[in-house]
Amino acid sequence: MRDGTPVTGDFGQRLRHLRVRAGLSQEALSHAAGVSVRALADMERGRTRGPQRRTVQVLAEALGLDDDEAANLERSAALGRPRPRTATAPAAPGTLALPRDIQDFTARVPALAQLLDLAQDADPGRPAVAVVAGQPGLGKTAFAVHAAHRLAPHFPDGQFALDLHGMDPEPTTPRDALARLLGAIGVPDAAIPAGTDDRAGLWRSMAGDRRLLLLLDNAVDESQVGPLLPGTGPSLTIVTSRHSLAGLESVHRSDLSLLRREEAVELLTRIVGPERVQAEAQAARDLADLCGHLPLAVRIAGQRLLSRPHERLGKLVARLAAESRRLDGLQAGSLRVRAAFALSYRQLRPESRTFLRRASLAAGVDFSPETGALLADLPHDEAVACAEELTDAGLLQSDSATERYRFHDLLKLYAAEQVAAEDGPAVRDAALDRTARWMLRRATAAALHFDVEHDRTAPHDGPEEHDAPAPHGDPDPDGAPVGRDDARAWLEAERSQWLAALRLAHGTGLHRQVLDAAEAMHWFSDLNQHWEQWVEVFQLSADSARSLGSRREEAVHLNYLAWAYNLCVADPPAALTAADTALVAARDCGDGLQEGWALGYGAGALHRLGRVPEAHARLGEAARRLASQDSPQARLAELTILNSLGTLLRQAGRAAEALEVHRRSEEICRAGIPGRMDDLIALYLAVAQQQIGNDLAALERWDEAEPPLRRALAAFEAAQMPAWAGPARLDLGQTLGATGHPQAREMLLAARDALAALKSPRQAEATAALAALDEAAA
Predict the structure, then answer these.
(1) Which residues contact 139 (CB under 8 A, 6 or more apart)?
(2) Which of 77, 435, 748, 777 would be a feasible disulfide site paired with 733, CB 3.0-4.6 Å?
(3) Cα 22 from chain centroid?
């Protein structure tokens, strides 16, 4: 004996003596060794007589034992372990041993911590189950194996791993899986019942009082897993699956996500070594991005580089940069991203395979079931069912708040390959054309909710009127957006899709549809001046008008284009070119209204270019040209020109003259314009009031400036016009700041944030105003 420690005898007695000698409580030893308090208590009480060698090793290290003491502790544990079965037994314990852990395993710290907590806090009477699910390539098996090795000391009665072959044509049956589990815990073949239910009952009875860790890898569905789960006892089962296994009740879920960029780079570093990554740090980050932060793809890239020690990371980045070669480049030996996706794809129903591959044709980062249904030529309800099935299979990710779906970048490339292989160009082009026509008609109808000049009782007068159902020519009236809020939400969500439809229609010669859609978008675009795509929309429509030989429509849409260059992308040279071209077209066809607009937009561009006298001259000519016309459209155009002219005068230091011009604009609004709705005139009035407030502020009549600015801001907010409300908020904030109003800072902060979100050049002005306010306060 040494220090009173018995040389032989019960393991629990020896362990308790060594713990007390070390001055450790069970809790302290549990923390040091990574073994649960409950497991330690079971050992010291003799309930667990022969823990596994790994458990004994971590306990010896935590207790600070020398080699002899550690060997004695291991021998006492070995005496309590079950003896091996005779050679005649058909199976032996350990035949389902855990696979080898991956030494360069990276990240997943929160998920690992959750499983550790689950193991430590499990109810002894209720076995815990953790489901690890997610899309192909997330490293579910690697994570589960790594977690099992970390958790092994908590389960001294055995750790078993069983591949259920869920992606194989014939997955493991519960009956066969139960036979292997029973054999692993020592049940001879002759004693294993024939039926699945009897096998499940025997398995539950034998596992019920044991601390077992069970890894069920690659499960196909709930029916395969259910019979394998222990019914009672302190065991933990980790199930991995590409499906969510939503039908399993009372389980902990570890839905793995993509790696963060820095985690992907760390994994690459652990594979190829820090020297190569540090030598090409940017290439390593680019490589992580091209792999879509998918663990399997990053590992394949790393293994490929590891096998080619002299190859630069930048060379692989250049190869993967081409989408057509990316999946070919992401393979290393038997590891292939394409193969991982193919396993899941082959298991889908035919309808879901069609939906998945055709959905890759959708424009933008996400898509709706509506778009998927059109591309796949499926009924809407069937498309929704397919989208849900694909989400459950980890092949699509669903938005947390809306019914929209997205691909992982690499999976989208794979799906596009299947379009080429299974559908071919003719089917693909038909799907795109069908979707584009539908989307363009829906977009046109939705945009007309904002067109104040459109007679909502009139039928759609486009070239396809004969097959355009009411209302507004929407292709699906029952599912059409109702009211402006719904229409705005649809147009925003489907922005990429209807813009792609517009491009396709233009490219295939559907010029009348392009013009109808762009014309319908005219008023809606005014509410969303921060959208850069308006330049493309109106460039396409102007081109279509030219193709149709309509000079008047060409002038209209060139004016829209000049507006977009001026206000949406701040490109005054391009705006001036578009406005001058519109002016020529307007004069060719004798359209005085479009001539006035072209002069006004050209003046705006000249002003932004610093050519103020020329801008002033054009605005004066535009005002005179429009004042000579009697149409309601001319009055609205005149209001815009007057507001621009007054602004130019104020910026030239002639604020009193500007105030007179803006007062005239206000008078026109208050008098009303026949045939125009009150809410439209209210917006023009709000613009005039904003400019009047700015004129008064320029004259340092601060108290008079505040009320019209507040009224303008309230009107823009009520109309949900952020592109107009942001600048108005800045104007009001600056006026309040000049008077020391306590609300000034709050108003300027809100203006700065709003203008930043709009990518407005005036955000710098808001930042400067805040700095000046803070300096004055200091």
Answers:
(1) 108, 256, 295, 296, 299
(2) 748
(3) 53
